[in-house]
Structures are given as structure tokens and as C-alpha cells.
Amino acid sequence: MDKLINDFGFGLFFWQFIILLVIVFILGKFAWKPIVNALEAREEGIADALAAAENAKREMANLKADNEKLLAEARAERDALIKEAREIKEKMLADAKAEGEAVGEKMISQAKATIESEKAAAIVELKTQVSSISIEIAEKLLKEELANTEAQAKLVEKMLDDVKLN
Amino acid sequence: MVTLKKSLNLLAAVIFTASSVFSYAQSNAQTLGESVQETEQSLGETINAAEVADHEHEAEAEHVAGEKSQAEKVQDHITHHLADDYSFIFFSDEETGKHYGFSLPVILIDNGLKVFMSSEFDYGNKVVEKDGQHYKLYHGKIYKTDAEGTISYDEAHHPTNEKPLDFSITKNVASLLFTTVLIFLMFLSLAKTYKKGPNNLPKGFARALEPMVLYVRDEMAVPNIGKDKYKKFMPYLLSVFFLIFLLNLLGLTPLGFNVTGSISVTACLAIFTFIITQFSANKDYWKHMFWMPGVPVPMKIMLAPIEILGALIKPFSLMVRLFANITAGHSVVFGLIAIIFVMKEALGTAGAVGIGFFLSTFLVILEILVAFLQAFIFTMLSSLFIGMAVAEHEHDEAHH
pTM surpassing 0.80? Predict the structure, then answer.
């Protein structure tokens, strides 16, 4: 301990004190603080850049998810549209068929009615013609039969007899 | 065989560490048991060196003249390396007594400012005269003496001569200044890269510094102080971490610094941490220190001195931990290098060089780890203490 105290040099202590002060303060101003600040700034920059990259990644993922969602929606919409179109088509076909059937039936029934009426008209005309022909025949017959006076008198008499009977 | 060598090395390391710290702690040298010498040869030699070294203080104090043994020279060298110096010597020629290096300015405040180069002392051989006052360099310290350079001693063989107020640029101060310049160059270049924007990455050497700054921040400051408050203390923590780390590392180079292994430096660092801790402390910290909440009144009175003592012991432990670790590391590395000289006879030149080289290389690698570890621990504990002082106690105090 004695030797230790003896070894203590005040001059060396003094110079060490001055030098340490110089290193701490002068180097502190021109080196330590700029270095520490720069390192911190760089680390913050790196952290920020990493955070930004992470954000960008997340956004990309979001965007991708959105895209997929949109795509899925579009696909679903397309499917729905196609389904609807098919339904419409089927409905239209069914409708057209039904309408066509109705129209056909109507036309058939109309045709039937026309045929009926034509038939009736033809029958009526036939009847009139038959009657007129019969009348002509009858006329001609009567003319033949009643060509002499006697036959005429006989007929009148016969008719008169019929009237009496009534 | 390898494991044996390693364990031998570790044993030697432990003994060397202990011996050097021991010799520091006790100026009255104590003799190690003589039986130790009879242990394994290499180990015995190593211990012998340490033991002889322990005697050395006595020997020096008594001014025993004569040839020094190899082991004494080694211990002298280690002691000299660990202590501060007034000149920067890279190597010396023993035979001619020439030192290769450069001298540093001596600055004394003693009836005015006195500045001269340490070369005037001629490594303690000459007495320097400035403005009628004589100074002598004796065992790494400058004393006021008379014209002949007489040194008087007390019973404990300590010089009783007056010491002038000494602000010299010693070896450690020069090393500190050199390291400071390096730190400035390194971190100003790193700071410059961020001027173009925080996303401009540093290039070259600065690129290696950035992870270390981040390490200090993420492993020490933020976990201990908290995310909101750490920024205020970052200049101090970074300064201390890099200063200690760099000084520790440079201490392992052949430049031969031992700055973090001197008590003045670690004391200064610890005092800084202490001051910062006390001045940034919030109300809760003081409340916990003087009037511990949630305990009975007698306990409060009992706890206050313990808490105050704790607050003082914390920086003291910081100071001693760094000092002891680095001193021990330097002692052991030097000791292992000294094997080359000490065991030359026993193992032959090649064998001694080989073992010395192998062991010291292994240890220097370990010391690199220690260099980092001590810087880490000092900074970590500093931030822990600061964190304790600024911690918010949001929970109910009654639950303590």
C-alpha cells in the first residue's frame, strides 16, 4: 500500500484528467455525439424502411385479397347472369310454345267454325237449289199433267175434296 | 506434454503475478520460503527470480554495491518498466550504458515554472541546477537536493527530501498524448463519414470502429442505463472504453507503455466515474443511500454508512481492478521474456529462447483478451453505476 501511494504521481493524474476532459468534451462534440446520432438516425431509417416495406407487403396482400374478392364477385355475377339468361330463355321458349299452341288452337277452332258455317251455307244453298230444282221439276210435271182441261178440273176437284175434309 | 507446459506456464504466471503485486504492496520485502527453490527446476528458477527481486528493495535501500545477478537485472527491468519515467527509452546497451530513446520535457512548479529536458539529469547521474535550486532524479522521482545531490533517508529507507510539484511530460503522459492523438484521428475520421448522411457507411479502418461503438452502446450503455437516458453518458463511456482499450493494446506493443497499469491513471478514470455517478444521480439514489425506504428506522440508520461506504468502494474497485490486471499482465509477460536470459544455462540458448518465446506468445494472446476485457469491464461497471444512480423506481417503495 505504501508503495502504491508512493507510485501515485500527481503530474500524471493531472495530465490524465486534462486529457480525459479533452477527449470527453472535444471529441464528444466532434465525434461521439455525431457518431451516436448518425447511428441512431440510420437505425431509425432502417426501422422505418422495414416498417414501410412491411406496410407495402400488407397492402399488397390486401390488394390481392381485394382482387380475388372482386374476381370471385365478378365470377358469381357472371354465373348469376348466365343462369338468369338461361332461365329467361327457357321461360321465353315455354311462353312461345304456349302462345303458339294457343294460337294454333284458336286457328283450328276458327277454321272449324268457318268450315261449319261454310258447310251450313252450302247445305242451305243446296237446299234452295234442290227446292228450286224440285219446283222446276214440279212445274214441268204439272205443266205436263195439266196440259189438258180435264186433268185440271180433276185436280181442282181433288183439292176441293181435301179442303172439305179439313 | 502440452498440457503440462500450459499448466506450468499458468503456475508460473500466477506466482509471478502474485510476487509483483506483493512486492508493490509491501516495501519491506519479505522472503519467500527457501523450500520453494527445491521445486521443479524451471519453476524454481522463476520463483528464484521473484524472490531475489523481493530482496531487491532492501538491497537498493542499503546501497549494496556490486554486480547484480541476472535475476536481479530482470526484476529491475520489470520494476523500471512498470514505473513512470522521464524519458522514452526503447532499448539500452548494458555494456556501454547507452540508452536509445528520447528524453521528455520536465515541468516543475517550484517558485515559478521550470521547464527543461530530462536529458539534463543523465538518467539520475547529474544534479540539475535551475534558478539556484538543485534537483536530482532518484529512483524515477525528482527530489530537491543540495549542489552535491545528497539524499537523506528515514528509517524505512525512503528519501526525506522535498519533492517539487511535478507536471512533467513523463513517458506515461507522452504515451497518453500519443494515444489521444490516435483516438482523435480514428474517431474524427469515423464521424466524418456520417457527415454525408447516416446511410453513408464508413470505409477502411473506420468500418472496424463502428461495430465497437455499437458494442459499447448496445452491450453496455443501453442495457445498464436504459434507452431514454443512455445518450447523455455515451461521450464518457465511449471515451473511457476506447482510451483504456487502446492504451492496453499499445501497452502490449514494443513501445512499452504501461499507462493503464499506473495507479494515477486508473484513479483518475475511477474518480471521473464517481463524479459522473454522483452528479447524475436522482432523488431515488440519494434516498436509497441516506434513508433506505421500506426498512425500520434503526436499519435505516445502520444502512446509511454502509451505503455511503459502498458508493466509495465502487470507484476504488474500478481503480484497483484495472491497475492490478494490467500491472500483473505486464509483469508476467516481462517475466516470461526474461526466461530467455535467466534459463540460458539450464536449457541452452535455443531451448530458453524457444520456451520463452512460446510462453510469452501464449501470454500476449491472453493479454490481448485481457486488454479488451478490462476496457469492457471498466466501461460496463461505469455504466452500471451510472444506471443505478439514474434508475427510476416506479414501483411502490414499500415493497423494498
Answer: no
